[in-house]
Amino acid sequence: MLEAAIEAGAEDCESSEESHVVTCAFEDLNEVSKALEASLGEPESVKAVFRPNVTTALDEEKATSLMKLLDSLDEDDDVQNVHGNYEISEEVMAKLG
């Protein structure tokens, strides 16, 4: 799968027993998906996903504030997707419960 993805113009491919996640530049998405469909068949899904280039580690105080914001956004019916570039350590997540 990795070889087919790279030949189609993808940057990377992560495979598991259930699925394959192919990474490419946003502008290459259509071309890569069509090339892979031609060689491997119709995909289960094709979608653009935000992945940050730079992430920010959050301490407990900032993580608490962020979680409150995310909960509020989750409750808002008008919000469809939320993207972020934060990292919260397992230790801080354990404290937040």
Can you offer a commentary on this structure?
The chain has a two-stranded antiparallel ribbon. It has helices at 2-8, 29-40, 60-75, 90-96, and strands at 12-15, 20-23, 56-58, 86-88. The chain folds into 2 domains: 2-40, no CATH class; 56-96, no CATH class. It is of the alpha+beta class. The protein is built from 4 helices and 4 strands; from the N terminus they run H-E-E-H-E-H-E-H.
List the helices and strands and how they pair.
Elements (H helix, E strand, L loop, with lengths): L1 H7 L3 E4 L4 E4 L5 H12 L15 E3 L1 H16 L10 E3 L1 H7 L1
Output the keywords.
single chain; 97 residues; alpha+beta; 2 domains; 4 helices; 4 strands
Rg, nearest Å: 18 Å
Q: What is the helix content?
A: 40-55%
What is the β-strand count? 4
Spatial order of the strands forming the largest sheet: 1-2
> Which structural category fits the helices and strands?
alpha+beta
Order of helices and strands: HEEHEHEH
Instruction: Give the end-to-end Cα distance, rounded to a whole number of Å.
Output: 39 Å
Q: How many discrete structural domains? A: 2
**Mean pLDDT, all residues:** 93
Strand content: 5-15%
Poorly predicted regions: none
| Approximate shape | elongated
Major sheet summary line: 2 strands, antiparallel
Helix count, per DSSP?
A: 4
